[in-house]
Amino acid sequence: MSQAGRALAYAFESGTLSSKRAFFLRAEALLLRDIDAEQSFRPEYLRLKQTKWSITPRLDGGPYELGLVLLTKHKEENFANIARGWALLAPGGRLVSAGANDDGAASLEKHVAKAFGLADKISKFHSRVFWFDKGERTPPDYWRGLAGLQPVGAGPWLSQPGIFSWDRVDDGSALLAKHLPDDIAGAVADFGCGWGYLSRHLLDHCPAITRLDMIDAEHRAVEAARANVADSRAAIHWLDLIAEPAPTTYDAIICNPPFHAGRAAEPALGQAFIEAAARALRPGGHFYMVANRGLPYEPLLNTHFSSFETLADNNKFRVSRAIR
User: Fold this and answer.
1) Is 313 helix (H, G, I), strand (E, B) or coil?
2) Boundaries of CATH 3.40.50.150 in the chain?
């Protein structure tokens, strides 16, 4: 359980907050009953499936007397979830938010206090828990707009907070797209498809593709990808490729692995994606990947593939092609 989750649990266990039938956005397992939980990240969703809660990747319905929002480090996603939480509440219902101090919870608390006023708050486990009761004050228009699909710049794309690089084409994906050949053919997959930029590039430039599986563990990405890619060859899958098998085997796989920059522990996710790609490729199949050039992926490519080469290196990202 996260620090913010512990602080939220403490608020109920200490009697500061009373339990009622509630919804829980970005849910974690707490010792509470009568919870309708929303968790769009597939690994956490599968863990919550082991509880007795009702769990869904996208919650609608209500009204509820109580709502819980576990905050993330992404400000726009938090604005969107609080606006959605407000809409799910009955008049007079209470919305409780919990977030870690290191993720900016104090700043968000100030935004919420300005927008709605606060009924109360507590600080525990390096986290903040704060709440307000639904009255006549409504969420800012900007917050409500973020709760649905939004245009990405001036281009033809739609996205939403909670997705990697939700409001722009990230530099790594742009570099990979530039170096993908036009003769990719047969059954293809985009591992960690995000909101669909690379998948749409493939379908627009590779006419010999007969099937394209777009796969992501974040349901919000799946929703956006479905809106961005309208092609009879494409199928979209909400899967955790680390724990669940790919839908089939492929002639080619493209991938911009998640969390490929930052702290030293993060490369493990990219490594798991490389291993998943090796399992899902047919012999002779090609794997195209972009990653932060400082991450140690070359030994893993050497272990799992018969050969690999560098297609591009701009001192920030490296594009590799490996053959199964």
Assistant:
1) strand
2) 3-146, 150-323
**End-to-end Cα separation, the chain, in angstroms:** 39
Is residue 129 within 8 Å of residue 7, measured between CB atoms?
yes
DSSP character at residue 222: H
Q: How far apart are CA 7 and CA 114, in angstroms?
A: 23
> Which stretch of DSSP H or E encloses residue 76?
helix 75-88
Q: Cα–Cα distance between 33 and 11 in angstroms, integer?
A: 15
- Cα 64 → chain centroid: 26
CATH classification number, 150-323, choose in 3.30.1060.10, 3.40.50.300, 3.40.50.150, 3.90.550.50:
3.40.50.150
Amino acid (one-letter) located at 131:
W
Contact 293, 316 (CB under 8 A): yes
Pairwise CA distance, residues 51 & 248, whole Å: 30
What CATH fold (topology level) applies to the domain 3-146? Rossmann fold (3.40.50)
Q: What is the pLDDT of residues 122-140, one digit of tens each?
A: 999 999 999 999 999 999 9
The verdict on pTM exceeding 0.85 is: yes
CA distance 264 to 22: 38
Among left, alpha and beta (phi > 0; psi -120 to 50; other), residue 209 is beta
What's the pLDDT tens digit per position in 294-324? Answer: 888 889 999 999 999 999 999 999 999 999 9
Q: Is 278 left (phi over 0), alpha (psi -120 to 50) or beta?
A: alpha
Question: Of 150, 176, 152, 6, whose CA–CA distance to 79 is shortest?
Answer: 150
Pair of tokens at residue 250: 């492929």
Q: What angle do CA 224, 226, 229 make, to 5 degrees?
A: 105
Give the pairing of strands 209-216 and 186-191.
parallel
Q: Output b/e per residue, 84-100; b: 16+ Cβ within 10 A.
A: bbbbbbeeebbbbbbbb
Q: In what order do the strands lie in the sheet with 35-38?
A: 54-56, 35-38, 22-25, 64-70, 89-100, 127-133, 120-124
Give a three-class secondary structure readout of 256-306.
Answer: CCCCCCCCCCCHHHHHHHHHHHHHHEEEEEEEEEEEECCCCCHHHHHHHCC
